[in-house]
Amino acid sequence: SLPVRLAGLLPLLYPGRPAELDLSVMWLDAARRGTLIDIGSGSGWLVENMNALGWDAQGLDSDPVAVNNARARGLKFRQGSLASQGFADAAFDAVTLCHSIEHVPDPAAFLRECLRILKPGGQLVLATPNTQSLGHRLFGAAWLHLDVPRHLQLFNRNSMGALIAAAGGIRCRIFSTCRDANGVCVASRAIRRRGKFDMNAPRSFLDRFGARAAQLAEIVLMLVMPFWGEDLVAIVDKPNPDSRS
Fold first, then answer.
1. pTM (2 decimals)?
2. Residue 208 CB coordination number (10 Å)
3. pLDDT of 68-89, one tens digit each?
4. In the list 43, 139, 169, 210, which could disulfide-bond 188, CB 3.0-4.6 Å?
């Protein structure tokens, strides 16, 4: 109906909201459904979202506290590394990694394993900090994501493409988004001023307003510099040999 269609345009009025909604399903076609494994799943928000949309989703995380909390909420969760799970070939229709690949010592081997457990015709989707972003350009060494040793490797469009090719990915699409540019701005400003960022500290109105303004600026600049977004997203399609397309 027309009212529903008009309501669907409302997120466009709020800086960053469309990117946040895309992230809430990891850029997957939510209506497609199927089996999904979210690696580095943390609180399990994506597993919960996708199950609510009819997917058969489960999470994997190395943190026992996160795993126990997710299981207590009725979510299907595994604990440990991806390599230790012993998944069969072509076990999942979708494999997702939201800000996980930057924590991995050998990302090429890791992505090869992700592609092995992905069904032909399935999708591997990952989001990670983007070193070409406006935030990195503005804040330099104070940029939030320069977070050694928690973040082991960071990527841009070219290095991500090379990584996917090294892992055996053939068909992929890489782009950037402005998601969380506001949060990165607040954190990076704090690091520049005080040398650290407390995510639980209260934020002033000026901080919150300035962060949203920075996010809006990033959105506008991305019209001419599309890879200046804060998040880098890669969608890898695993070829289906039975398809003639």
1. 0.90
2. 12
3. 999 999 999 999 999 999 999 9
4. 139
